[in-house]
Design goal:
Blueprint lengths: L3 H5 L18 E2 L8 E11 L5 E11 L7 E3 L8 E4 L2 E2 L3 E3 L2 E4 L5 E10 L9 E5 L2 E5 L19 E10 L5 E4 L2 E7 L4 E12 L6 E4 L2 E8 L5 E8 L8 H18 L7 E7 L6 E2 L4 E5 L12 H16 L8 E2 L5 H19 L2 H20 L11 E2 L8 H18 L1 H15 L3 E2 L1 H12 L8 H4 L5 E9 L4 E9 L14 E9 L5 E10 L3 E6 L6 E4 L9 E4 L5 H8 L3 H20 L7 H12 L5 H8 L4 H6 L6 H18 L1 H9 L10 H20 L1 H14 L3 H11 L5 H14 L3 H12 L6 H10 L8 H12 L2 H4 L5 H16 L1 H5 L13 H15 L6 H11 L1
Helix pairs in contact: 2-3, 3-4, 4-5, 4-6, 5-6, 6-7, 7-8, 10-11, 11-12, 11-13, 11-15, 13-17, 15-17, 16-17, 17-18, 17-19, 18-19, 18-20, 20-21, 21-23, 23-25, 25-27, 27-28
The protein binds O-methyl-L-tyrosine and zinc ion (ZN).
């Protein structure tokens, strides 16, 4: 990549090049100090142009406390064209990327001017161009790529923003808050001025300029105010914005009802952009979204896409309180806003959809993304202690485990006390930059409950493992539950302390199938403990960690037949799902170890599930889906991906052939029109495709014919993608046919084309590496668009069997992609590294190949600190 600096600046600038900044240094939480200078107000002036945008910033700065330290403003890839203090040219120096100004008084007005090039900004951090529009991304440290500023979340300012731009290219000019003025300028230009009354950290600043159209609706808040809602997209995409709009209104009403949180401005804008590093961003009143989380209709979006849109729209909206009104003191506190907001969006999705299915999905994500993180070289606490690049800490640990921590606190407190605590949190810290400790303190003070023991969940990394054994004394009609906890060491934390683990537990009677001891909440807060259950009149079965009340691994000693019985009788849907999954897992692990694995218990449990009258189709679909190969790998001391794949395929084959007619019935079950988005209809579609997958595992020809029929008949993307997802792994003539049909119909729709790439990168085939190498050369592939890059490289990295191909070609492919992407967009490149992280657990041949690729990456010249941090930690 050409140095952004060289294209962003006029050739004549006179400031000497700053000496290279010390890079790759770790920032530590314990080094936190309050800011030396505050900036209560800022005025920004943008002369917008894709190639040369002028940014003038006027900062009202105030000395914070008694000290004589200079004002330090962060910059990244920018050079000052002008620096004035109180209206006069000022002395300043550059210290690495920082602009340093000695100021004598307690207050000053500091004005700087820079020129930046949005079109040359391939990192997509700061102000950049996407599909003809200009937009910003400032979290975490993008604002310093726009202007010089103390870029840290505990400096809160009131913003006034003026944008001036070509009225043809940029008819719409948006920023945070309210538009307070607008007008025409000379030469076909126009301008708008926006003001945000709420002080905010600079990571929440946003600007959008483009040729956009809005889907507009109104929302009346609980106090009767009217809010103008707008979802801004390119005109052609307007028909695909209604689901996002409906989701937004549901989220606004939900946050009023469940948390008492009302929206606080007269406008709320969402803008969809097609080049975006993450999912979406909660900039105050101007949320900017990856278009994948806005645009949907039945023909182009799956049920999963619809759910994700509702989830992400709600997530960003909820940040208005958990993030914007109360923000983070420093980036180590990231989970303060992210863990809490994920918990809030999970609760929302559970309330508007099917709660048990949602819980199963959330736990699946946690196990797939967070547990491996916690068990590998990138493990870190929910509140990390240090980082080199904060962009690497937008992780499943901070987000999803952070949400589990809040969930445990909510479980322990119960709904009323939890609500009293969150009310106090929002009231006490409104307008402030707070810490995770502040959050727990507010919950304690609001509820009157001491939560001190739970704070260790923020500081100690690693997934606790619980050994559980239920002893039964039939004479005394008593059962005793013996519990023991253990946490493996993680980087920087060799010795672990016991953690408080809230376990929702019930005892089910083996013969009766009834809950003979009703569910109770046990908190194991020591290394081990024993709990007695009385009045146990029949042989008991242990139903533990119900609803997944703690983010842990349970290793329960089970008697023969116990899981089978729980799979049929447990009244907690999650525990029932767990019993089936555990039954499958035991068989899969045995198979992968080369032991004789009898599939009969699994077949019986799946048959009973399919035939059950009490389970709805969505739960059936979840329950009969086999644990992923990555999850099986987590259970093995030495990972052999071929053995795991063979074991899983064998069980899929056994299920498909033994239960052919049940599966066919499930596949054919109907009552779900493509336009019906009810949980029931989604469940029917889910089960239809999961069942088809098992049919195809046993009988390729029949599976291919049925999949092709589903593909051809589909009136919705869920069925179409589901069928194609099965066909891509088969060696059937229908495969290429369907891929071609799909491409011909959708190749002009980038989001659907991403699916086409991703489906092929996810294929379970011996030649998937060859396929992705071909796809990378496809004329529609571009490494510059994060969604397209992830559709191949991200999906492939998660394809366990293909990525871990014994010849190492999968490793080479992903490493090459990381190196190529790093030159353009380090943040997105670094997010492709984790699949390499667990190399030590693989059989020696693969471990050596993975390690060699990591070493090749880390030795590459010009590596970003983003990729450097992930790769060096993976090797350590
Ligand atoms: N705060 C956002 C996530 C986010 C983080 C960094 C970004 O930089 C590219 C973008 C978005 C959220 O939690 O939704
Ligand atoms: Zn968030």
């Amino acid at each position: 990549m050409a140095d952004v600096r060289s294209t962003a600046l006029p050739d004549t600038h006179s400031i000497p090049e700053a000496p290279p900044a010390p890079t790759h240094v770790a920032i530590r939480r314990e080094d936190y100090r309050p800011p030396d200078w505050l900036v209560p107000e800022i005025r920004l002036d943008f002369d917008l142009d894709p190639d040369r945008t002028r940014v003038r910033a006027t900062l009202m700065v105030e000395r914070n406390g008694d000290h004589d330290r200079p004002l330090r403003l962060d910059g990244d890839d920018i050079s000052p064209l002008k620096v004035q203090v109180d209206g006069a040219d000022a002395d300043y120096r550059l210290d690495g990327p920082q602009l340093v100004i000695e100021l004598s008084g307690r207050q000053a007005t500091v004005e700087t001017e820079v020129e930046i090039s949005p079109a040359a900004n391939t990192k997509l951090m700061g102000l950049y161009a996407s599909g003809g529009m200009l937009c910003t991304q400032c979290e975490a440290e993008g604002f310093r790529r726009i202007t010089f500023f103390p870029d840290r979340p505990d400096v809160l300012s009131r913003y006034r923003v003026r944008m001036d731009g070509d009225s043809g290219a940029f008819p719409i000019l948006l920023s945070n808050g309210n538009r307070v003025a607008k007008g025409e300028g000379p030469g076909g230009r126009h301008w708008a001025e926006w003001e945000d009354p709420y002080p905010k950290p600079c990571y929440l600043f946003a600007l959008v300029a483009g040729d956009l159209k809005a889907n507009r609706e109104r929302f009346t808040t609980m106090s009767g105010r009217t809010v103008d809602l707008a979802i801004w997209v390119r005109e052609a995409d307007l028909p695909r914005t209604q689901h996002a709009m409906d989701s937004l209104k549901l989220a606004m009403a939900w946050d009023e009802e469940v948390y008492g949180r009302e929206y606080d401005l007269d406008q709320f804008n969402i803008v969809a952009v097609s080049d975006f590093n993450m999912g979406a961003m909660e900039n105050k009143s101007l949320n900017i979204f990856n278009s994948a989380y806005v645009l949907a209709d039945q023909n182009t979006a799956t049920d999963g896409d619809f759910d994700n849109i509702a989830r992400v729209v709600a997530h960003e909206y909820f940040h208005n309180w958990s993030g914007d009104r109360v923000t983070c003191r420093d980036w180590f506190q990231l989970s303060l806003k992210e863990g809490f907001t994920v918990f809030r969006d999970q609760s929302f999705s559970a309330d508007v959809g099917s709660a048990p299915v949602k819980r199963i999905e959330d736990v699946r994500v946690l196990r797939a993304a967070q547990f491996p993180e916690d068990a590998g070289p990138l493990a870190h606490p929910v509140r990390p202690d240090s980082y080199i690049e904060i962009g690497n800490f937008y992780t499943a640990t901070v987000y999803n485990k952070g949400a589990e921590v809040i969930r445990m606190l909510a479980t322990v407190l119960g709904p009323d006390k939890f609500r009293a605590g969150t009310d106090l949190y929002f009231a006490r810290h409104d307008g402030e930059a707070a810490t995770c400790d502040d959050f727990v303190k507010a919950l304690e003070d609001g509820s009157g409950v001491d939560l001190t023991p739970f704070k260790i969940w923020y500081s100690q990394a690693g997934t606790p493992k619980i050994k559980a054994r239920l002893d039964y004394d039939s004479g005394a009609k008593a059962a005793t539950l013996h519990l023991e906890q253990h946490i493996d060491p993680t980087p920087g934390q060799p010795v672990k302390q016991p953690m408080p683990i809230p376990l929702k537990t019930a005892i089910v009677g083996e013969a009766s199938g009834h809950e003979i001891c009703p569910e109770r909440l046990i908190v194991l807060d020591k290394a081990s403990g024993a709990i007695r259950f009385d009045n146990v009149a029949e042989q008991p079965l242990l139903s533990i960690n119900r609803g997944f009340s703690a983010p842990i691994v349970v290793e329960a000693a089970r008697r023969p037949g116990e899981l089978e019985r729980l799979a049929q009788a447990d009244s907690d849907p999650f525990a029932r799902y767990e019993a089936i999954q555990e039954l499958m897992m035991l068989s899969l692990v045995a198979g992968a170890r080369g032991e004789q694995a009898d599939p009969a218990p699994v077949i019986e449990a799946v048959a009973a599930t399919l035939r059950s009258n009490s389970l709805d189709p969505a739960l059936k679909g979840e329950a009969i889906l086999l644990p992923s190969e990555a999850l099986i790998a987590d259970r093995l001391a030495v990972v052999d991906p071929d053995a795991i794949h063979a074991s899983r395929e064998a069980l899929r084959h056994a299920l498909g052939s033994s239960l052919a007619s049940d599966l066919l019935a499930a596949h054919r079950s109907d009552g779900a029109s493509g336009h019906d988005l009810s949980p029931k209809a989604k469940g029917i579609r889910r089960l239809r495709t999961v069942a088809l997958g098992l049919i195809a595992a046993a009988n390729e020809a029949e599976g291919a014919a049925l999949a092709k029929a589903q593909f051809d008949r589909a009136d919705n993307m869920t069925d179409r993608q589901g069928a194609l997802g099965i066909l891509v792994s088969l060696d059937a003539p229908q495969r290429q046919d369907a891929l071609n049909t799909f491409y011909d119909r959708f190749h002009n729709d980038p989001l659907v084309l991403d699916k086409w790439f991703a489906l092929q990168a996810a294929a379970q085939r011996a030649d998937t590496v060859d396929q992705v190498l071909r796809l990378e050369k496809h004329s529609d592939f571009t490494i510059a668009n994060p969604n397209r890059l992830r559709s191949i490289a991200g999906t492939f990295g998660a394809n366990h069997w293909a990525f871990h191909s014994a010849d190492g070609r999968g490793y080479r492919f992903l490493a090459d992609m990381i190196l190529a992407a790093d030159k353009l967009n380090p943040q997105v490149a670094a997010r492709l590294v984790p699949p390499f992280g667990r190399w030590r657990r693989f059989e020696p041949n693969r471990a050596a190949l993975m390690r060699a690729e990591l070493e090749r990456i880390v030795a590459s010249p010009g590596l970003s600190k983003d990729v450097f941090e992930q790769v060096s930690k993976s090797l350590a």
